[in-house]
Amino acid sequence: MNVVPDTSVVIDGRVSDRVEDGTFAGATISIPEAVVAELEAQANDGIESGWDGLSELQRLAELADDGEVTLEYVGDRPDAIERGHASEGEVDALIRDLADDMGATFVTSDIVQSEVAEAKGLDVEYISPRVEDVGTLSIEEYFDELTMSVHLKTGVVPMAKRGEIGEMHYEEIREDVLSESTMKEYADEIENSAKESPEGFIELSEPGMTIVQFRDYRIAIARPPFSDGIEITAVRPIVQTDLDDYEYDQELRDRLLEQQRGVLISGSPGAGKSTFAQAVARFLADSDYSVKTMEKPRDLQVGPEITQYTELDGQMSLTADSLLMVRPDYTIYDEVRKTDDFEVFADMRLAGVGMIGVVHATRAIDALQRLVGRVELGMIPQVVDTVVYIEDGEVHTVYDVTTEVKVPHGLMEEDLARPVIVIRDFETGKPAYEIYTFNRQVVTVPIGEDEDGESSGVDRIARQEIEREIRSIAQGHVDVDLKSPNTAVVYVEDRDISSVIGKGGGRITDVENRLGIDIDVRTHDEKPNSSAGSGGAGGTSPAAADRTGQIVKPEITSRHIVVPVDGEAGETVEVEADGEYLFTATVGRGGEVQVSRGSAIAEELELAIDRKQQITVTPS
């Protein structure tokens, strides 16, 4: 008897099983070089199935040495093009053709391979993949009723997060350091159990990282060189809650049921966001709504009536396209992190699907701000109308998000009316924040004064904008004293007075009209408590004279000029070209300043770049 096995049955270890039970006793086992190439490639990439297959080849070699079978390697290794098209069946075709040419029995655990081979007239033996009733995993011994997650690593004592929601502690749970052999046994057991049991599956398998969902456990296995040692992190839910376990439960029920909503559930890692999301999902499903989830990895604990989807062909956008055909009433999106995620979330919401997204954020307002720049500002309330912030397992804050056309809080002139996103406290109905465009920039302004008595957010923004405008005219030092929401005094060098005011007051009037603020221009000598000659005859302060700017290379995109800044987010900086002041800006979270193309500032900066001038950034 001559047998040609394919990769699937070698990985599964079923060829040596057939030899040992006598089915293939005395047979000639012809291993295609294409199989060896596939196993070698998988093992080199750190994929466990490659090692499983190589172990099977070693067992077959031992059986051949004992005279049980004859083992030979046949055929040619696939070339680079054939390996590149392995997922399209090129390597499978090579193995089938080899079995056909040899007149051998083709053995496989791949049902597709089996059907194709039979259709081509081959003698096929299909061996079903091994499925076993998997019992308890060894790592489950580290869990008790208060353990949320277990953290194991080679050379380290076992650690765990234990306690009630909101009072978790990361602590040692054993005294003995874990050896590499023990960690490898744990990892192999987890992966094999996920493959063999209908209660588990491998969510992700990449070189160095495997993510497994097994029963209630989500388990991440990291291996070198991705990590500096074998590490296993196993997480499970320790509580299941209902919506009536939370504050505002009846109000939230009514809000979710009255119409499809756009909701962001936010909070810090471990705060209980997913637990709350699961409670919402169960409530909606029990209220006769069609509910689906989008997750990567899939680890929400929901009932079988809620279908859990992951990435389709590696893209959540394709998953969304499929779900739009299914038309669920609500979709739970866990977790919304990257720009693509927010875009998919927005597209589905605008298509009429109720969306509930789980977002990492340290404040409730931060969750909404993550949409800024990713979704058109005016569309945000149509995408997200409710923000729920979870802290220590409890509903801490709920915001209602709407749009109004009004004069922003703190501004006075009626002609400054514009679309404003108003974020209100759900319980009191009082405005907490406003988001709007101010002088070409999107700003988020807290309503009212800060607790420490400092000026409100709109005052700080107004001061920055006034300073930005005046610095674009003046050559020397500029100070701004905001007297009220609609009046300010600007102090400049003597030599800059005429330039700032302009002929007949025309230039300062233009600035006032743009900002909606009355500006009184004075010299530094007129500033209260200032010493004569402040700023020096040269037009710059001593501090400014000592500053050293960092040389940067701006990048011009279709919509912005991006200036990279090596500094802290929120820091105010001055941008210069060959030593000439251009404008003042605030460093964004990404460590950069973005200037919208088409603005006067952008035109000056772009002209300086075209002239090959040296662009520098200096702390203001």
From TrEMBL:
Keyword match RNA-binding: yes
Similarity remark: In the N-terminal section; belongs to the PINc/VapC protein family.
Keywords: RNA-binding
Origin superkingdom: Archaea
Region (Disordered): 521-549
Residue ranges of every copy of the PIN domain listed in the record: 1-115
GO molecular function annotation: RNA binding
Keyword RNA-binding: yes
Matches recorded under CDD domains: PIN_VapC_VirB11L-ATPase-like
Pfam families linked: PIN, T2SSE
Protein name as it appears in the record: PINc/VapC family ATPase
InterPro entries for this protein: KH_sf_prok-type, Nucleic_acid_metab_PIN/TRAM, P-loop_NTPase, PIN-like_dom_sf, PIN_dom, T2SS/T4SS_dom
SUPFAM superfamilies with a match to the protein in the record: P-loop containing nucleoside triphosphate hydrolases, PIN domain-like, Prokaryotic type KH domain (KH-domain type II)
